[in-house]
Amino acid sequence: MEKNNLYCYLKCYILPPMKATPDNTIDIFNYFDYREYLQAVYRWKKEHEKGFSHRSFSREAGISSPNYLHRVLNGERSLSESYLEKFCNALKLSRNECQYFSKLVQFNNESDSSKKESLLRALLSLRYRRGIHRISDKKLQFFSKWYYPVIRELAAVLDFGDDYNLLARSCIPRITAQQAGNAVGYLTKNGFLELNENGKFVRTEPVLSSGNEVRSLILRKYHRQTLLQSIDALDTIEPENRDVSSLTLSVSKKTYIAMKKEIQDFRKRLLQMARNDANPEMVCLAGFQLLPRSRVHSRKQQQDRRR
């Protein structure tokens, strides 16, 4: 497992296994993606209910199109909110399950990141009220504050005892002692840090369970925080202690993909350097951005436009 960098945490995410409740039906509260839930239900019904099909489900839901469920499952179309009640009836969901399913569909269909964050909080709240507030829900908060990953690394490097003022002063930008203490409490409670036999903090490698959309939503917020801090760093960190540069280039799509691969390989080399460092003294952030600044215009397209 790669350590000492943001990217090692990305690799800690795995998709949750398909779980069944004691009566062998699929539990919707295990899911953050309504398509995954519907696919699990379809597989279970196909195996246990004779004659079950896309057509029979549509008939039971009162939907005229026999292929509607098939198209939703294949990602050919999104589930319309106008069909929510029909799906809830066909799935025989309880009131609380219908409420969760409705929020789940809204969450997956929403494109605005701030609205998605609000819907994610609503989903986690519904899971909590049902009494299944899993440890993985709390672990999702890891990237909610920029300094959680920093404190995780710093606590293993700095012998701060219980001096949270020292830990807070060691962060750039500086945080409060209370924030540092809360961060250590969160990280130890949720398995990101632990005390060894010598009373020193060491990093652990917890596994976080979430769907891809949940993961990307939390990480987008984290990346926004770190990018904003990078802007401030231009004025607050001395030039000899930072390296910030940018290039604007014209390249082919093939070269663009090759450049992306080069950055990925370089990132792995940095991770290997950190892994081999026997005497870490500080925490740093290595950020890489490779973004298109124009649309793709092939030679053929340009020639066709001139004709």
Describe the structure.
By secondary structure, the protein is mainly alpha-helical. The protein has a domain at 31-130: Orthogonal Bundle (434 Repressor (Amino-terminal Domain)). The protein has 14 helices and 4 strands. The strands form 2 sheets. A two-stranded parallel ribbon has the order 1-4. Strand 2 and strand 3 form a beta hairpin. Helix 6 packs antiparallel against helix 7. The longest helix is centred in the C-terminal third of the chain and has 25 residues, at 212-236. It is extended.
Helix content: 40-55%
String of helices and strands: HEHHHHHHHHHHEEEHHH
For the termini, the CA-CA separation is: 55 Å
The largest sheet is: 2 strands, parallel
Average pLDDT taken over every residue: 78
CATH fold name of the domain at 31-130: 434 Repressor (Amino-terminal Domain)
Per DSSP E runs of 2 or more residues, the count of β-strands stands at 4
Alpha-beta classification:
mainly alpha
Task: Please state the second-level CATH architecture of the domain at 31-130.
Answer: Orthogonal Bundle
Uncertain segments: 1-24
Number of helices: 14
Radius of gyration: 24 Å
Query: CATH class of the domain at 31-130, anyone?
Result: Mainly Alpha
Give the arrangement of secondary structure elements.
Blueprint (H helix, E strand, L loop, with lengths): L5 H5 L2 E2 L19 H15 L5 H8 L6 H6 L10 H8 L3 H15 L3 H17 L5 H5 L7 H11 L6 H6 L7 H13 L3 E3 L5 E3 L4 E2 L2 H25 L16 H24 L22 H8 L1
Parallel strand pairs: 1-4
Antiparallel strand pairs: 2-3
